[in-house]
Amino acid sequence: MLKVQLRNLKGSVKFPAEYKLKTAKELYVVEMMKSHRLPPPGLGSRRSELIQEIYRSLNNDWNNLPSEKKSIYRDEFKARREHHLKKVDDWIFKHRHTKIYSDILEMEKRIKSLEKKELKPGEEIHEVKDKID
């Protein structure tokens, strides 16, 4: 529940969305997936199976990609990540003295403390998880 509230708060104040890609390999797979034509989702569609097959194939293709091409994707990944971090830094600089920013920080601290919280005797794992989600 806290994570949903935090996501909604960040969205309402146009905080830059999280950059989801973690590696240059992921960037390669995402970019290559765009070139595949997939059937529309629906009853009897093999869409999810096809996506999984293509994803596995592209992961293998990355391993066989020449180092020059990998370097291009690594540079592009680094540039995109730095651009995203700059957007976040700019937002924080602009809002660093506002109540919204302090609310975001407080919610993030509460989430982290709940994630690290040790279970008390008799407390169930899902009770702690429900507070976070």
Provide structural commentary.
The chain is mainly α. The protein has helices at 2-12, 24-33, 47-64, 67-95, 99-116, 125-132. α1 (2-12) runs antiparallel to α5 (99-116). The longest helix has 29 residues, at 67-95.
Topology (elements, then pairings):
Blueprint: H1 2-12, H2 24-33, H3 47-64, H4 67-95, H5 99-116, H6 125-132
Sum up the structure in keywords.
about 70% helix; single chain; about 130 residues; extended; mainly alpha
Q: Return the average pLDDT rounded to an integer.
A: 86
Whole-angstrom Rg: 20 Å
- Termini Cα gap: 4 Å
| Main sheet makeup | none
- In which range does the helix fraction lie? over 70%
**What are the segments in which pLDDT stays under 50 over at least 5 consecutive residues?**
none
State the order of secondary-structure elements, H for helix, E for strand. Answer: HHHHHH
Structural class: mainly alpha
Oligomeric assembly: single chain
Distinct helical segment count: 6
- The total of beta strands comes to 0
Strand content: under 5%
Broad shape: extended
Concise summary:
The chain has helices spanning 2-12, 24-33, 47-64, 67-95, 99-116, 125-132. The protein is an all-alpha fold and 133 residues long.
